[in-house]
């Protein structure tokens, strides 16, 4: 496992006038590559054979590196090539899912934008809840024992499975029947989390925290469009159809303005709590997954500690980013600007880990 000292040594060896922004060809790679181009940085996408042609076709993509599997980004040969390009890795959801938070910590010897340890915290639901609780966020009630279920609950499985397999249950009997009918390994079933199902409206705000000036920005906000649950309202008699929560798209949303001060306070508290729990804490892009109740309170059920796919709705900027910038500012571009500004101020080691 490379130390922070080791990363700093690699950065010292880099030609900072020729940095290359690198990520996997998936998830939010288009806005990251376009953001690099807009900020005057080179970009490189690591792609599998299957999707290389798709990414090569975009006029702002500088280079595509083809690998057999995404995990090959950890191979010595690929990493050497990336360091030769003065590469800075920008992790996104698919990067973390395909390469694995533990493998990134153990085997990625290329500087990465943002903290690595935070990826370990976001890939463990229990740690996420500890972090959000430390931030003073209201959380859905968690049930350790199915016999305690006294209201509608949502049962979730470990890993970023995209909501696959989740189910709802109103009591222990329903929980047991549905759990028994699921074709999942016992280990996965044992790692499930039983959460109170919170009824309200969902919001997924996109934040960016910069340690360079200790600032927190709200760059955008979306609602995930999930199948089949978001299709059930179109069927008058939907009873009997088990809802599923597989993300298939994202819808832009703005929040009632009177709720924004509270949202920013929550974002700041999440950053402060992260610094207390795992230094250097949350750096760069993150998203809170939350439900706003009819009493106008926020209940947080997850935190994503990197760029989320919902930012793809704002490649040309969002209502919030256009209040902050007089140019189109996607989350991908904001991350590239952070790299550019840190390089100009000779402060790369504060944002790369
Ligand atoms: P997650 O994997 O935690 O992002 O959850 C997938 C989806 O399930 C979310 O985007 C929500 O639509 C829904 N969901 C998750 N947790 C809750 C909850 N506690 N109450 C209501 N809906 C939830």
List the helices and strands and how they pair.
Blueprint lengths: L3 H10 L6 E5 L4 H10 L3 E7 H8 L6 E5 L8 H9 L2 E3 L3 H7 L1 H7 L9 H6 L2 H10 L7 E2 L9 E4 L10 E3 L2 H9 L5 H5 L2 E4 L4 E10 L4 E14 L16 E8 L7 H18 L6 E9 L5 E7 L16 H4 L6 H14 L9
Parallel strand pairs: 1-2, 1-4, 2-3
Antiparallel strand pairs: 5-8, 6-7, 6-8, 9-10, 9-12, 10-11, 12-13
Helix pairs in contact: 2-13
The chain binds adenosine monophosphate.
Adenosine monophosphate binds next to β6, β10, β12 and β13.
Quaternary structure annotation:
single chain
Main β-sheet, in a few words?
5 strands, antiparallel
What fraction of the residues are assigned to beta strands by DSSP? Answer: 15-25%
Number of distinct beta strands? 13
C-alpha termini separation: 12 Å
Label the structural class.
Answer: alpha+beta
Query: Share of helix among residues?
Result: 25-40%
Describe, in plain words, how this protein is organized in 3D.
The protein has 353 residues and is of the alpha+beta class. Helix content is 33%, strand content 23%. The protein has 3 domains: 4-113, Rossmann fold, CATH 3.40.50; 125-138 and 199-237 and 248-326, ATP-grasp fold, B domain (D-amino Acid Aminotransferase, Chain A, domain 1, 2-Layer Sandwich), CATH 3.30.470; 142-196, Dna Ligase, domain 1, CATH 3.30.1490.20. The protein contains 13 helices and 13 strands. The strands form 3 sheets. It has a 5-stranded antiparallel sheet. A 4-stranded parallel sheet has the order 3-2-1-4. Strands 5-8-6-7 form a 4-stranded antiparallel sheet, with helices on one face. A hairpin with a 4-residue loop joins strand 9 (201-210) and strand 10 (215-228). Helix 2 (29-38) packs across helix 13. Adenosine monophosphate is lined by residues 140, 154, 156, 163, 195, 197-198, 202, 224, 226, 245, 289, 291, 301-302.
């Amino acid at each position: 496992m490379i130390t922070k000292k080791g990363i700093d040594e690699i950065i010292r060896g880099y030609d900072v006038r020729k940095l290359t922004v690198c990520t996997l060809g998936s998830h939010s790679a288009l806005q990251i590559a376009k953001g690099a181009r807009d900020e005057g940085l080179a970009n490189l996408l690591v792609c599998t054979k299957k999707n290389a042609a798709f990414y090569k076709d975009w006029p702002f993509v500088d280079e595509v590196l083809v690998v057999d599997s995404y995990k090959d980004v950890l191979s010595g040969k690929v990493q050497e090539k990336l360091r030769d390009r003065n590469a800075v890795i920008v992790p996104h959801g698919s990067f973390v899912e395909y390469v694995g938070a533990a493998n990134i910590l153990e085997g990625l010897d290329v500087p990465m934008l943002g903290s690595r340890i935070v990826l370990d915290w976001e890939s463990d639901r229990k740690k996420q809840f500890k972090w959000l609780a430390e931030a003073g966020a209201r959380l859905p009630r968690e049930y350790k024992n199915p016999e305690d279920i006294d209201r509608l609950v949502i049962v979730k499985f470990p890993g970023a499975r995209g909501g696959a397999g989740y189910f709802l249950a109103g009591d222990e009997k329903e929980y047991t029947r549905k759990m028994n009918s699921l074709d999942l390994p016992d280990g996965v079933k044992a790692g499930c989390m039983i959460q109170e199902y919170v009824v309200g409206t969902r919001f997924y705000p996109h934040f960016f925290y910069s340690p360079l000036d200790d600032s927190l920005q709200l760059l955008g906000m979306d609602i995930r469009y999930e199948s089949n649950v978001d299709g059930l309202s179109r069927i008058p008699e939907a009873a009997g159809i088990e809802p599923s929560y597989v993300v298939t798209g994202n819808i832009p949303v703005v929040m009632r303005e009177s709720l924004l001060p509270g949202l920013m306070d929550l974002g700041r508290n999440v950053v402060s709590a992260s610094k207390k729990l795992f230094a250097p804490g949350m750096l760069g892009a993150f998203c809170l997954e939350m439900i706003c109740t009819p009493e106008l309170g926020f209940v947080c059920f997850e935190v994503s500690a990197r760029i989320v796919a919902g930012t793809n709705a704002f490649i040309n900027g969002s209502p919030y980013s256009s209040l902050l910038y007089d140019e189109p500012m996607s989350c991908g571009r904001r991350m590239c600007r952070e790299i550019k500004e840190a390089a100009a101020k000779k402060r790369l080691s504060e944002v790369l880990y």
